[in-house]
Amino acid sequence: MLGVLLAVLASAMNAAASVLQRKADREQSAFGLRMLLDVVRRPVWLAGIGCVVLGFGLQAVALAVSPVSVVQPLLISELPLTLLLASMVFRRSIADRDWWAVLAMAAGLAVFSYCLEPSGGEPLRAPLWTWIVGLAATLLLMGALVLGGRRCSSGRRAALLGLATGVGFGTTAVLVAAVGAAGVGSMFVTWQTYALVVLGPASFLLLQNTLQAGPLVASQPGMTLSNPLVATAWGFTVFGEHARGGGWLAGEILGAALIAVGTLTLVRSPVLEAGH
In terms of residue numbers, what domain contains 65? Predict the structure, then answer.
């Protein structure tokens, strides 16, 4: 229960960070060092970074007390929370269609999480070869998506970079779970800590690039859905987590479908586009 609460609070902080960063970035036309030097002088951008740090801390604690396949799907709630915060910051009203999408996502998360009910899993007991294979696969996927995005323009570029960003943050989460399992006393002798120091900032910089690459309607679905998908896949295949099967699978599929429909609806909301 504590992990669930912390995951929801982390989503709220991430939503606040997203809105604040969009407010700071919306007048920028290209990502690069010059843009970074510009936005870093803006208080609203710094406030967004503060929310990112706080959200990351809450997520880290959640991953330390709950399986990764419990925590990461709940972070999908960042999208409807972003909608609510953006409506206040950018002074836009929320359409009835968007409210229905919020309800669909809330219901989908509740149904999916209840039916899945993951348990178990020990990150540090996973064989080293499974870590190597898992990291190689996800990093190759990220690289292919980024390379493909650089060769495209506008919507397709944003979509591919959004997917890469989601994969990056999903993989970052599994590293955080391993570091949390090691504990404060052993974190500096755990190799996952140093992998996290590299992949975490790289994923954050990729996020900034993604936000500048094209419309939110193209990038957000990939970011929203690939993050928990990648992390949950790690939980079940590498960490040894277990989920309900049999008839519960129907509920899991229904919940996932509601989440997907809600996500695809919300990313088209004029409220979210107001930040660009």
Answer: 2-273
